[in-house]
Amino acid sequence: MTITRPAPDLRPVRPSPDEPRPDEPRPDEARLLELLDARAPAHSLPGPCYTDPALHEVDLRLVWQRQWFFVGTVAEVPEAGDFLTVDVGTASVVVLRDDDEQVRALRNVCRHRGSRLVSGSHGCVGNIVCGYHHWTYGTDGRLLHAPQLPPGVDPGGLGLRPVHLREVAGLLFVCLGDEPPEDIEDVARVVAPYVAPHQLGRTKVAAQVDLVEDGNWKLTMENNRECYHCDGHPELRCTFFPTWGLSDDQVPDAMRADHDRYLAALVDLERRSDDLGLPHGLVEDLVERPLGFRVQREPLDGAGESFSPDGTRLVRRLLGDLPEARLGHLGLHTQPNAWFHFQADHVVTFAALPLAVDRTLVRTTWLVHEDAVEGVDYEVEELTATWRATNEQDAAFVAGTQAGVADPGYLPGPYSEAEQQVEAFVAWYDARVREAVGR
């Protein structure tokens, strides 16, 4: 049978007058801008910003494919060949330590016909071998072997596509864009001295939990940025002061005693931090900077050592060369997707990664000293109890909010005085979208 097809029309295609010019936002981007324009100051976002799949794709394109975001720590890839993977929408990145002990990030896509190369959140490889047609890559991304590759095809041009990666005192950030924002160097100069004393390069993973929240990624981040709801976290409130996020003039009378106790603990912590040469003051640049951040060493309630029911340490072996346990917690937050708690005895990292418009992966990782022995220096269940419970409670809050913002009866409400950092996150998101579309 002979099938005849018309010859293709190779003439240049002229854009329709109804299509946007190159310097105009796309229709879906213009719609998002209209919704952002309609938001009243210090109010939550309109419902479609959390529920519309088309606008979620705009988020992926304008934010997640342009900005730096946190993916893990050096402790997750301690040896040559060790890797971790992160998925953002349909994009997948593999972060691994190569044979020369360098950490690098690569697109998790075979250069042959696009098959996924590695699966699972973590693992170890010698070489990276595609399971489809067995194209083989080194841990540096070079194509080593491609069966029956035609003569004249240069394998040197078929290596895995690199992804920008920057380590900040053991924290790993990647950027999917061709030209990542340069401000990460400024952020690193500020943040690294705070994190460095905990020596993440001398830690190991004690536990890691992946939890999928049934909510938009922005709701996950907004929930994390306030303690207005912390009555719903009884385990966390054992050591997390209830007036976190409030200035002196915002503290209600009923919480004044709690706040006075916090202020006294803060003065004591600052004195001891100064004695030990540990940076502790608040540095906050959450809105204008592409890699928005907030960092501060703050006291914990009770014994002031760790996130335990009485505030005492959870790991006998302290991190790095820290000489004492009563150092509260170093809190670090980075836009768009991460928050961290560094104690003297362990570190907890959190990465929020969008899976769908209404599904967000929250990956929580507990790090302890590399020489700490499970069952002797720490118990995993005790180490993880507070944040396992808190994460599950937060997942319920986020799911309830996702259901609410999808309701036809939803109208954006005003933020409370305790939600200033929520407003800062939303303002950061608004600014990044407008930067990306040139508005």
Automatic annotation (TrEMBL):
InterPro entries (alphabetical): Rieske_2Fe-2S, Rieske_2Fe-2S_sf, Ring_hydroxy_dOase_asu_C_dom, Rng_hydr_dOase-A
Domain of life according to the entry: Bacteria
Cofactor(s) for this UniProt protein: Fe cation
Residue ranges, annotated region (Disordered): 1-27
SUPFAM superfamilies, sorted: Bet v1-like, ISP domain
MF terms (GO), sorted A to Z: dioxygenase activity
Domain Rieske: 68-174
Compositionally biased region (Basic and acidic residues): 16-27
Keywords, in A-Z order: 2Fe-2S, Dioxygenase, Iron, Iron-sulfur, Metal-binding, Oxidoreductase
Name of this chain's protein: Aromatic ring-hydroxylating dioxygenase subunit alpha
The species this protein was found in: Nocardioides cremeus
